Amino acid sequence: MPFSQTLVSETNFFVLNDPNIFPDPEVFEPERWMRATAKGERLDRYLVNFSERLANLLAYAELFMTIATLVRSFDLEIDENSKKHLMFVRDYGTPYPDEGVLSLPVKVTASID
Q: In the chain, how long is the greatest CA-to-CA distance?
């Protein structure tokens, strides 16, 4: 007998607005999370407003913006002994420096206001 599959899914809107999960879902009430935790309930498993892919993209965007802000806020000078950090010696479709060397030591020389 062949095995058949049926996909079942629910949109985020209906999960987040289900009054059985989130009482009074249209009211901004952060305390509901504390009450649920006190009762031993886990509301976080119903928090489906971002897919995993979108959450990862947002996290990377936040990291890039943070790094860009730091780089623009300081005058940085590359350490003289950093040649091994800049030389590519391995290639797996993308060049890489020596094993374990995935950083670039820099010295902060000034703060830019």
A: 73
- Closest CA relative to residue 108, chosen from 81, 72, 82: 72
Reported as a single tens digit per residue, the pLDDT across 46-60 is 877 666 777 788 889
The answer to whether the predicted template modeling score (pTM) of the entire model surpasses 0.85 is no
18 within 8 A of 26, measured Cβ to Cβ: no
108: which 2 tokens? 């902060």
Q: In which region does residue 24 sit, left (phi positive, over 0), alpha (psi from -120 to 50) or beta (all else)? A: left
Cβ proximity of 89 and 96 under 8 Å = yes
How far is Cα 69 from Cα 110, in angstroms, rounded to an integer? Answer: 15
